[in-house]
Amino acid sequence: MELDLDESSLAIGRIERALSRIEKALADRASRPATAVAAPAADQAALKAEVAAVIGELDLLIAEATRG
Amino acid sequence: MADVKLTIAGRPYDVHCADGEEAQLIRLAAVVDEKARAMPGVTEVRQLLFAALMLADETQEARTKVEKAEPQSDSLRAAVALAESREAAARDELKAAVSREQAALKELEMARRNAQAAASSSNPAHDRALLQIADRIETLASKVEQLP
Question: Which of B54, B66, B71, B130 has a beta carbon 3.0–4.6 Å from A11's, enabling a disulfide?
Fold first, then answer.
């Protein structure tokens, strides 16, 4: 799939909106009364691993984009 | 004050109690009467004695159960507190990761603008990678929203 500049800006917009959704979900969870039910440790570990992987990809992309 | 007529072990009693407590008094009398009637063929005094002993035994047993249950509820409270603190730590960690991701995104946007200025056309491979990252972060957002 080929993207022109406008579409890449759209992709960045999607990323920004998704990050806002994550922030809102975390803020909602923090404001909810605490429950004894936490997400399973395996799910949390998988989520953290995916966050780390996406950050790694972004870092790589930034380095490549900076180099041109 | 209210007047209540009770019958325990076959003998009627007139008893006074505070207004509104009549029904509770009748229920208590029924419990005593049931215990007394469980000992047929003995004198009324003995029936009442056995009823009192059985009720005292039940009271003591209930008290022992409560005392035994108390340490368990302490452990349960400690487990809940531990789960809560772990959840809070995980949430903080995730928040920090989101902040790092946002910072990285800003940096990417700046690098993209710089690259855009340097070259007239964008790198299709970078755009594809960006699109894939957008997909993955959207999936992550859905997962975070569905966390219990």
Answer: B130
Find the CB nearest A58 among B105, B121, B147: B105
CA B38 to chain centre: 40
What are the phi and psi torsion angles at B20 (to 5°)?
95, -15
Q: What is the dihedral of CA B99, B104, B109, B112, to 10 degrees?
A: -170
The ipTM estimated for the assembled molecules is: 0.79
Chain B hits for A4, CB-CB cut-off 8 Å, are: 122
Closest C-alpha to B108, from A49, A8, A48: A8
| Whole-prediction pTM | 0.43
Helix, strand or coil, per DSSP, at residue B66: helix
Query: Does the beta-carbon distance from A15 to B128 stay under 8 Å?
Result: no
| Tens-place pLDDT, residues A1-57 | 444 456 777 888 888 899 899 889 888 888 877 665 566 777 778 888 888 898 888
Q: Which residue of A has its CA nearest to B101?
A: A55
